[in-house]
Specification:
The chain contains three helices and ten strands. It is of the alpha+beta class and 169 residues long. The protein has a domain of 113 residues.
Amino acid sequence: MRALKILAIAVGGLIALLVLVLLGVWLFVDPNHYKGTITRAVRDSTGRELALPGDVKLSVFPWIALELGPASLGNPSGFGSAPFASLQHASVRVRLLPLLRREIEIGRVEVDGLDLRLVKNATGKGNWEGFGGKSSAPQAPAGSTALPELAGLALRNSRIRTWSPSTSI
């Protein structure tokens, strides 16, 4: 009986510690401080400019969630100044408890106000080609597993436009 009481106290202490850590993250981590890091990482990996003029919001329980908007991703050079994609609001959620087991469970990704502009230039190259550098096929890191499943994708108030030199927008 005494061992059961000690186990209950230990489990309760771990739960309390987890709650305190989550509360600390929620109170003291401002995701807006990482906008510069995020935009540099996108520019370095894609060669395109990411603009995040809106707030980035973080929540921590029962999902770790990021919400942002508005945002836009620029075109590669030679495709004009209009953005490749823009959106008014987006959110993505990852379950917290599986992260403690080093697993990723992604909830539904929600995007509102997506405006995607797929353009071909005079040589027939599309502005969606060439993300992430010169490699023709993405290389998976050694020991990696498949990407986690996505619970769903919700697109609202969105459009996809295509244009090539032989058509008009």
